[in-house]
Structure formats: structure tokens, C-alpha cells
């Protein structure tokens, strides 16, 4: 109990600082103290456990949000009803056994912008009574939603990749999969592997990044990591994600002729670059995305086979040979008619993890759930679609066992190429030019 109170005092300090720096974001320190104190008691077993699912209602994230909601419906059914033929936690039960068989309900909130994410996070907790939040968060929307989480003392599991999230000292933040630092380190380690084991001869890299926090943070880490691994940076391009013409950027890349072009883009601008690449009859020897728009379902749906040979880091892919993964991929394809992508799965799987943590804690209290996350979740490996070694969250919120994979498009489908132990195909390098396809 002393630890719990200490955590809440720390939370109040963070809330005070954030409220001071974000005037108009709602509430003051006194209100935060009253709200946090309301959570002191252990929750009785409710009939329904609500989990907030944050998605975008407007803009380029609408498609991703719809996919997340479809998967949430599938997960609700698996948890709440008996499915003895499915390899997932709670599938053999009806509801959460340690919480009196309570059923799970995903409640949707909007995170189309940072300001909206803050108000929606607060609404979901105070009005809907969610025990925590997951969703298709960006780093920016995670930061504002965390204001409400620290104020009221409820967990958010977000896959926002910025290292500022784990550096912030949040008490109620968790991230199950890697941040930008590990994704990028894995990217350059893969280039090292290709040089050492496949004699790829990769020496030069060009960086292309949109200029918001997402792209800027990635570009900074990529630059430092490339230099540490001994690669020459021949271009470092920053652009506005709202741009309607990127011809000049593509011409600079064509002139630089790097062995690898690494990009951090959102969905619309990733498609814009692909169109400009084709118009200028240029395609890099290796085009390596850092998730974002290169992982969106819209990417291959819009481009068809023009998406071929693009690489990206990822957390999961539908070709992974894993019983739980295959069960989910099949159910999602049957429901939606489209192939499940890793970003959708991770966004909603984090809500599944909240249910597992609450069941393991035997409580819906925010501190009890966080304690279960810190101690480590008891998930049989065959019931984990990601096949991780575990889920144990450090004090900064990062899962100690989070890992990444590398995938490549071919025939407009994503294929795992690394690690080789789980690869569905071999890397195609250098990529074919437009007139060779």
C-alpha cells in the first residue's frame, strides 16, 4: 500500500507539471488529487470490463481505425465465449476467470489529433469507466492521453515509438514492442548481416523523413546509428507530410543513388513518394520504410504490385508460423476480406494484454494492473501470436522482451525475410527497376 501511495504522489507531481505546460488541457492539481484518490479502493468484480480503444475518426487513419474495431470485435468474442479450437488466452473459458467471469467490451474513442486524444482519454475513463487504453496511437497522441492517465491513475499501453515516451517518467505507460531506437538498430544490424553473410556491398544510405516528431526523431536516431555502423549518409531529406509534390526530393535521391533509402512517412505521403518514384523512373536498390505509411493496408491496396520490393520493420506478419498468429489472421480475413497487418494487431492486442493483466491481478484497479505488467504476464508461448519470450514491463514502461522483424512486399503481399529462422522468403536485392517488372 505504501508503494501504491508513493506512485500516486509521483503521478500527481507529473500531472501538475503537465497541466502547467499544457494550459487549457483540463483540470488542475487539486482535481487530479481528488480523482486519483477515488481509485484507492480495490474494484469489486463487475459484469463487464471495459477497455478503451483509441482510433482515428478522421484523416488518413480512418481505414486503420476500422480494421482495429473489426479485430476488437473478434477479440471480444474469443474472450467472452468458449472457443476450444482457438489458441489464445481465455478462449477455453467464458470471460475473465479471476474476475468472476466478467466479459470484456472494447469502447472506442477518437485520437485523430493530440487535443482530441486528451479529451477522449478523459471521457473514456470518467464517463465510460474503462480500466485502461490501447489503440492506434501515435507518439504525439500518446503524450496527451498520458495527461489523463497520470491524472486519474489508469494504464495506457501504446506502441508510439518515440523514445521520449519511455524517458518521460510516466507511471501508467507501457509499450509492448520496440521503440524507434531498437527498430532502427535492428535495421542497420540487418544491413550488416547482408554485407557479412550475403556480400551485399551496401555502403551508402539516404534518409527521407517527414518533419513532425515522428519523422524527426527517427531521422536523428538513423543518422547516429548509420554513423555508428560505418555507413555513409549521402542525403538527409526532411519534408512536410502535407506536401502535394515531392518531385524535387525524388530527384535529389536519384542523383545521390544511395544503396539504401530509409524513409519515415505517413500513409498519404508514402503513396505520394511512390507515385513520384515511378514518374521519375527511379526506384532505390533498397527502399526501407520505418513502419508508418509503409505498413498501412492502404499502401498495397492502392499500389498493387507497385509496392513490390519495399522493405519495412514490423512487429508481426501474417505469414509467421505460429498457431495463435494463424488463428487471428484467419478470423480477421474471414471477417473483413483483407489481410491483417502487424500495426492493427499490436494496437488491439495491447487491449488483450490489459485484460490478461487485470485477470492476473484479480482487480481492475490501475495500480494493480500496472503491478501485474511490471511483474510479467503469464502467457503460454503457444498462445502468443507474436511468439515473444515474455511480457515484462520495466519501470519506464518498455517490455523487456519486445522484438522486431523485417518484411518485404512481393506480389503486393508482405513477406517475412528476417530473422531467417521465421522467414517466408529471401530478400530480393537489389530491387528491380520499373521497366524490369
UniProtKB/TrEMBL annotation:
Domain Leucine-binding protein: 48-399
Signal peptide extent: 1-23
Keywords, comma-separated and alphabetical: Signal
Species in which this protein is naturally found: Candidatus Egerieimonas intestinavium
Family affiliation: Belongs to the leucine-binding protein family.
Keyword Signal: yes
Protein name, entry field: ABC transporter substrate-binding protein
Domain of life: Bacteria
Pfam families found in the cross-reference section: Peripla_BP_6
Amino acid at each position: 500500500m505504501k508503494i501504491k501511495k508513493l506512485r500516486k504522489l509521483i503521478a500527481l507531481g507529473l500531472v501538475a507539471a503537465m497541466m502547467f505546460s499544457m494550459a487549457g488541457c483540463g483540470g488542475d492539481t487539486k482535481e487530479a488529487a481528488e480523482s486519483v484518490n477515488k481509485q484507492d479502493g480495490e474494484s469489486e468484480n463487475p459484469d463487464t470490463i471495459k477497455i478503451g480503444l483509441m482510433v482515428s475518426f478522421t484523416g488518413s487513419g480512418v481505414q486503420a481505425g476500422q480494421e482495429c474495431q473489426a479485430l476488437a470485435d473478434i477479440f471480444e468474442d474469443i474472450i467472452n465465449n468458449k472457443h476450444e479450437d482457438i489458441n489464445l488466452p481465455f478462449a477455453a473459458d467464458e470471460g475473465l476467470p479471476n474476475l468472476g467471469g466478467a466479459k470484456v467490451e472494447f469502447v472506442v474513442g477518437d485520437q485523430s489529433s493530440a487535443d482530441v486524444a486528451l479529451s477522449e482519454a478523459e471521457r473514456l475513463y470518467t464517463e465510460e469507466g474503462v480500466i485502461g487504453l490501447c489503440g492506434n496511437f501515435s507518439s504525439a497522441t500518446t503524450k496527451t492521453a498520458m495527461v489523463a492517465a497520470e491524472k486519474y491513475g489508469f494504464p495506457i499501453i501504446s506502441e508510439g515509438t518515440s523514445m521520449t515516451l519511455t524517458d518521460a517518467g510516466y507511471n501508467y505507460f507501457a509499450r509492448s514492442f520496440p521503440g524507434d531506437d531498437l527498430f532502427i538498430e535492428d535495421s542497420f544490424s540487418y544491413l550488416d548481416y547482408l554485407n557479412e553473410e550475403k556480400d551485399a556491398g551496401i555502403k551508402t544510405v539516404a534518409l527521407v523523413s517527414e518533419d513532425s516528431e515522428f519523422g524527426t526523431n527517427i531521422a536523428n536516431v538513423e543518422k547516429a546509428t548509420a554513423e555508428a555502423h560505418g555507413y555513409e549518409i549521402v542525403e538527409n531529406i526532411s519534408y512536410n507530410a502535407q506536401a502535394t509534390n515531392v518531385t524535387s526530393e525524388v530527384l535529389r535521391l536519384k542523383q545521390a543513388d544511395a544503396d539504401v533509402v530509409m524513409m519515415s512517412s505517413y500513409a498519404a505521403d508514402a503513396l505520394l513518394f511512390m507515385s513520384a518514384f515511378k514518374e521519375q523512373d527511379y526506384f532505390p536498390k533498397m527502399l526501407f520504410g520505418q513502419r508508418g505509411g509503409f505498413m498501412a493496408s492502404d499502401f498495397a491496396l492502392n499500389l498493387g504490385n507497385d509496392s513490390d520490393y519495399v522493405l519495412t520493420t514490423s512487429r508481426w506478419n501474417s505469414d509467421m508460423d505460429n498457431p495463435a498468429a494463424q488463428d487471428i489472421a484467419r478470423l480477421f480475413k474471414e471477417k473483413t476480406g483483407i489481410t491483417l497487418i502487424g500495426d492493427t494487431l499490436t494496437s488491439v492486442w495491447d487491449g488483450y494484454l490489459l485484460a490478461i493483466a487485470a485477470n492476473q491481478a484479480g482487480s481492475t484497479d490501475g495500480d494493480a494492473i500496472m503491478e501485474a505488467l511490471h511483474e510479467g504476464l503469464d502467457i503460454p508461448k503457444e498462445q502468443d501470436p507474436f511468439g515473444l519470450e515474455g511480457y515484462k514491463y520495466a519501470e519506464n514502461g518498455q517490455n523487456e522482451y519486445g522484438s522486431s522483424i523485417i518484411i518485404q512486399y512481393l506480389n503486393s503481399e508482405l513477406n517475412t525475410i528476417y530473422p531467417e529462422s521465421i522467414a517466408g522468403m529471401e530478400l530480393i536485392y537489389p530491387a528491380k527497376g520499373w521497366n524490369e517488372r
